[in-house]
Amino acid sequence: MSPDPAKALESARHLSPARVLDVDLLLDDPGTRIVVCCGSGGVGKTTTAAALGLRAAERGRKVVVLTIDPAKRLAQSMGIDSLDNVPRRVKGTDGDGELHAMMLDMKRTFDEVVEAHADHERAAAILANPFYQSLSAGFAGTQEYMAMEKLGQLRAKEEWDLIVVDTPPSRSALDFLDAPKRLGSFLDGRLIRLLTAPAKLGGRAGMKFLNVGMSMMTGTLGKLLGGQLLKDVQTFVAAMDTTFGGFRTRADATYRLLQAPGTAFLVVAAPERDALREAAYFVERLAEEDMPLVGLVLNRVHGSEADRLSAERALAAAENLEDPRIVDQGEGKAGLRNSPDTYGSSRTPAPESTTGGTPTAGPTTGGTTTESTTGGTATGETTPEEGSPADATRSVDQLTAGLLRLHAERMQLLSREQRTRDRFTARHPEVAVVDVPALPGDVHDLAGLRDIGNQLAAGAAGRAEPS
Question: Which are the contacts of 7, defined by CB distance < 8 A and separation ≥ 6?
Fold first, then answer.
């Protein structure tokens, strides 16, 4: 019976090592103009983007890092009080390059678009419109579309050698790919066409349409939205009508820019099941959109210098130290059974007791006799001497057992991470991977970002390419 080709392919994938991502080669290439970091939340995208930007700058390039993450981590790690919609120079970098950073201000970017594509009077009317203010502050997809706008603006200036984009921290981190389509659907929708029709018709025909056609819609929408909101929407649409085409044109141009040579997508993940499942989603989605994926950054990978001691052997040794009667210790069980001082032995001498305040001698186990009196009678009971060699040995054994258990937990974690990583690389052998070791603390300054950059470069140098 011939083997199943699908199973054979799957087996081959498991045996093939992952390709290695050469980060320095990517950053040093003058043809690389945009690097987009994407991935689920909490995997270190912002830190990775900042570290890549810093490393590229210190290797001679003029870089701007654009973050869409509202958290303050990027500003703090770069020594900047705050980030806004304008690139800010980062001080303290080495080398001949420059590093700048900025954080997307969604509403301010929308305002800039309106001001750039409408005359002063119309722009003022749009900016003051209540519906526009709500739309620019929180309409679904506005953040992603404005990220596209800002990226297009930065690239059009030709001021930067490299733009590093940190995408939103969510499952929908690739929503900015859908933003042009969503915006087009919104602008071309029936409601918008109906609202823009009066302005396009103009004059009496427009007023007649507004009085007759709009009255039917107002009857329904007015109850749901309120008459004032509907009026605000009509005013906004009329004022924005001439700029709608520009929105679509620029969004489509930026989308094509993301597909073009010179753009590189990096998926960022952690060696955990959920994070790598999300990474697989991003990889497949980027392939569907024909976006240039260059590799996976696997953050917070754990390691150990003592990995030759397996978790099983460490746990067995810990159990032996905690309960020496499980297996032979020293001379073995026979020696323990033949000892006259064996705990619980039938040969233990019977205790002698007296009353009237006279101490009672009890069995000894190598310790000292303690006395407790009840009603004037002392009962002899032996306990190990505090600070005795036996007590010290027991403390050392307990400490050693605890360390062995910690080591076993680390080995189990390493094994789990490796299995999860292997599943991803078996499913996507075409994706180059670079590992970044887990750090003992958070990154909060340029030195920490520089260390991350060094680890990214060392990940490629430390692992040989598969032949």
Answer: none
Strand partners, 166: 37, 67
Mean pLDDT of all residues in 447-466:
76
pLDDT at 367: 44
Cβ–Cβ < 8 Å for 398, 321? yes
Structure tokens at 58: 């210190």
Q: Output the pLDDT for position 465.
A: 43
Strand order in 293-301's β-sheet? 88-89, 98-103, 62-67, 162-166, 34-38, 263-269, 293-301, 433-437
The model's pTM is 0.71
CA 334 to each of CA 330, 339, 340, 376: distance values in angstroms, whole numbers, following the listed order: 10, 9, 12, 43
> Pairing relation of β-strands 368-374 and 377-383?
antiparallel
For residue 202, CA distances in Å to 120, 172, 194, 322 come to: 22, 41, 13, 90
Res 89: pLDDT: 93
Q: Which two tokens stand for residue 464?
A: 């040989």
Say if CB 119 and CB 84 are below 8 A apart. no
Residue among 386, 383, 357 nearest 369 (CA): 383
The distance of Cα 51 from the centroid of its chain, to the nearest Å, equals: 14
Percent of the chain at pLDDT > 90 equals 28
Alpha carbon distance 70, 293 (integer Å): 25
Predicted confidence band of residue 429 (pLDDT cuts 50, 70, 90): very high
Domain 13-305+423-461 has CATH 3.40.50.1220: no
Q: Are 130 and 231 in contact (CB under 8 A)?
A: no
Side-chain half-sphere CA neighbours of 105 within 13 A: 14
Q: Please indicate whether residue 177 or residue 343 has the higher confidence score (pLDDT).
A: 177
**Which tokens in the block code for residue 252?**
């489509």
**Residue that the structure tokens 């950059």 belong to:** 453
Q: Report pLDDT digits (tens) over 196-252.
A: 555 444 444 444 444 444 454 445 445 444 556 667 776 777 666 666 666 777 778
State yes or no: pLDDT of 157 exceeds 80. Answer: yes
